[in-house]
Amino acid sequence: MRKEVIDGGQLISIMFWTIMGTAVLTLPVLIGRHAPRDAWIAAVIFIIGGLGLSLVIGALAKKFPEKDFVSCVENVFGIWIGKILIAIFFIWLLHTTSFVIWQISTFTKISLLPRTPLLIVVLIIIIPSVYAVHNGIESVARSGQFIFLITFGTLFVLFLMNMPEVNIENLQPVFDDGFNNIIRSSLAPLAWAGEIMFILFLVPNVKQQKKITQYSMITIILIGIGGIINEFFYTAVFGPLRQHLISPFYTLVRYISPSDFIGRYDVLFVSVNLAGNFVKLSVFMYILIFSFSKLFKKQNHRPFVLPVTIALIILTLISVEGSPQLTNFLDNVFPFYTLPILYGLPSVTLLVAKLRKLK
Amino acid sequence: MFKILKTSLSIAFMLVLLCSCWDRRETEELLLTDALAIDIPINDSDKYEIFFIATKQSSGGEQTQDGEEGGSQMEAQPWVARSQGKSLEEAINKFTVRVPRFIFLDDNKIIILGEKLAQRGVGETLDYLLRKRDLRLRNYIVISNGRVSNSLAASPEFEDGVADEIVAILEKGSQEGDRFHHKDIKKFAEDVVTEGQDAWAPIIEIITPTEVVKYNVDKAVIINKTALFHKDKMVGILDREDTKGFKILKGLANRDTFATEINNENITYAYNQVKVNRSLTTNSDRVGIKYDVKLKGNIAESHLYTDFCDKALKDLEEKFSKVAEEEIKSSVSLMQKLGSDALGIGRFIHAKEPDIWKNYRDNWDMIYQDIDIVVKVDAKIIGTDFISKPIIRKSIK
């Protein structure tokens, strides 16, 4: 098989939407539950956590430049312990991907297709990603790069149009939510930031592997600044009302009204979100199918695309009961097992590799 | 393997295209509401009464003898439907099952709440409306003086329907004078949930035929008062003069007038620029608030002869500053008496002095009624609009 190569810009583009895709839908609600006024601080903590993990990712990539994360773990811990660790990661990813699909499908169902059965919406969402994954990471990266430029610009304009509604007083007094609440509100964003470790699966495909730390940091800073701007706008525009909104970003976009003659910007947000989440889902599915094929020592991931997709569809339809249950789960359970996997696994791998002086 | 994948993807894709017909909607199947009005029903066990106000499009064309349609004119007809239930959802459902249309709230422009409902509390209603995904937060909110059904009986004077008439008055009128100000659901709900801030909304009322200039209209709708809330309950009303003072302090004022008398003759000052600066004052252990209001405007009408020299203008400025100050203070006193912190003084203390707010928070309702609110007005006359001598009665010349 020809080795697929992606450049730094493409890596940043796909990783941006890999983290941002569902973050714009879910994180404002989770952060707003604990620290509505100081929500922007959660985005700062997101940057700190993400940058820390970027250093670990960079160090691992430097140590094992031609190895993906599966081979790297097997090399460091030995075949069997390595396989067990990757299997744990695989189960986490399978479960997480199922509710990523559920979140995207439910948002699409609510905003565009309220009467269409969820299964059909899931199929609409998953088919483009399955096709992209089947074609390989290069296809995902190229479409990601194209989508990134358009969606980034659109989001920027959408926020600018909300400027007249900004009330800075809504952010005062700073640190009013209390230290404990601010830290609690930043757990979910930290878990999202952990997804930057997916880069480790793509290391052999990256053109300039020496710059992995830089790429990872740029991605985290871009998303972090985006998060600060997002949270700033939710609080400045809605004040404490943001706690009572089901989807703050969607509501924010629906609230835009700079003039009487052009309105209804929701379609822009829904399009941007669908495009961004196509990238997110493609990356999640690629890493999932890739790690699964590697687990069975297969070089070609394509034979696994269909079975894993079917498993994902079934899991999506049975694993989530509804939005309130998912929100509670993402707030109260998800960060506590995600943080050890996404931060712990690469850090321990690096530590053991250093202790064992592996090269 | 690739063949199987390709085939299954193609089948799935075709299924998707076929199945998306679930959400197909023809525009004629939709009931595009202009306004939603909610009230408490009279003498009934139900809790809510809901009105849907829409403009129904109907063809005005006639069929010719050879069967062709003789025109494509569409005539807009105002249309009001009523339903009631133990909950808002039940009221809407009862209505949905008896009409062959899908209620589409995306184009709704205004929410009208009955006075009794506002006095009982709007918390549940607001919560329901915020959760209605197709309802936009840009919807204006108004309170009906008395029952909603009475307000809806008004005939529009200039627009197609009463809802459009109210929206037009809200949008244009808020810019032209300071007798009311529009408020949307987002801002209203934000006030209800914000600590140290109470909500307010304009009031619509019906005027009788004798007051209506255009006599082919039975009843017309006007807006010139403001409903004040405490928490989610309406606690009182600011009349048109008090609303002016309230709008000035809120920084929402655009233009309006203050009138006074000199030698028993009227003189009117029309301000068109307003700047408000509020600051906290501390007097021993008490916190107060000071409003510095700067007005700029013209002498718009004078029934007495004067040459408007510098000294005369200075005297007039002082007089108008005093008049404005009195009117604004009267508005503030009424708000304090009613216990409605619509000016957001508590929220201001919270934002600027969080430590003091911690002590005030639990007893804010009591503290607010006694807090010192100082209003200083500086009215400047930037023009007299009297280049030539005014026409006045000879007796006082």
TrEMBL record, chain A:
Coiled coil: none
Highest taxon of source: Bacteria
Subcellular location, record wording: Membrane
Keywords of the record: Germination, Membrane, Transmembrane, Transmembrane helix, Transport
Main location: membrane
One cellular component term from this protein's GO annotations in UniProt: membrane
This protein's record includes keyword Nucleus: no
Keyword hit for Transit peptide: no
TM regions (residue ranges): 12-33, 39-60, 80-104, 116-134, 146-163, 183-203, 215-237, 267-292, 304-322, 334-353
Any single GO BP term: spore germination
InterPro entries (alphabetical): Spore_GerAB
Record membrane topology: Multi-pass membrane protein
Signal peptide (from-to): none
Family to which the UniProt record says this protein belongs: Belongs to the amino acid-polyamine-organocation (APC) superfamily. Spore germination protein (SGP) (TC 2.A.3.9) family.
Name of this chain's protein: GerAB/ArcD/ProY family transporter
Organism annotation: Alkaliphilus pronyensis
Taxonomic placement: Bacteria, Bacillati, Bacillota, Clostridia, Peptostreptococcales
Automatic annotation (TrEMBL), chain B:
Domain Spore germination protein N-terminal residue range list: 23-206
Main location as per UniProt: membrane
InterPro entries given in the database record: GerAC_N, Spore_GerAC-like, Spore_GerAC-like_C, Spore_GerAC_C_sf
Region of interest: Disordered: 59-78
One GO process term, biological-process aspect: spore germination
Domain of life (superkingdom): Bacteria
This protein's GO CC annotations: membrane
Membrane-topology annotation of the record: Lipid-anchor
Keyword annotations from UniProtKB, A to Z: Germination, Lipoprotein, Membrane, Palmitate, Signal
Family (UniProt): Belongs to the GerABKC lipoprotein family.
The protein's name in its UniProt record: Ger(X)C family spore germination protein
Segments forming domain Spore germination GerAC-like C-terminal: 225-384
NCBIfam families on file: spore_ger_x_C
Location in or out of the cell: Membrane
PROSITE patterns linked to this entry: PROKAR_LIPOPROTEIN
